[in-house]
Amino acid sequence: MTFLVPFDGSYLAEAALMRASEYGEALDEDVTALSVIPDDEAYATNVGWYEPGEPESFSVSYVAKRLREGVDDIAPGATFREERTDNGAPAAIAAQITDVADEIRPSVVFLGTDNVGEIAQPVTSVAGGVAANATYDVHIVRYYTPPSISDIQLTEGAYDHS
């Protein structure tokens, strides 16, 4: 099976990729990092993928190369996959991610986000649209570094299976 990590280069996407890579190594699972890249220079500039005046002119392949380098730095054994889209709306990006998930059928999707699980799903959330798919488990990464075992407070009776 495979672990799928939507990867946009944000610090929580990096954390999700790190976590997926650690679990993948421990469980002998492949990891695929997926970047959905809108063909839109303004979008790329807004999210920090591209700065006007860089030595190379904007292109999806240039952005993909930079994102791939980020993936290689964090999880050298991960497969990198890029998908181009004309629509940078969160719902369109989420739909592209779920299409790829339907194709590769991951056992778990690792999402790096701080806004999944809110009572009202934000309109700007890609993660909400991906997490809604019931064909795979979802591991939500909300913190760059996971808590240590000593930091986790068990609720009384949490593991009482009697």
TrEMBL record:
<feature type="domain" description="UspA">
    <location>
        <begin position="2"/>
        <end position="142"/>
    </location>
</feature>
<protein>
    <submittedName>
        <fullName>Universal stress protein</fullName>
    </submittedName>
</protein>
<dbReference type="Pfam" id="PF00582">
    <property type="entry name" value="Usp"/>
</dbReference>
<dbReference type="InterPro" id="IPR014729">
    <property type="entry name" value="Rossmann-like_a/b/a_fold"/>
</dbReference>
<dbReference type="InterPro" id="IPR006016">
    <property type="entry name" value="UspA"/>
</dbReference>
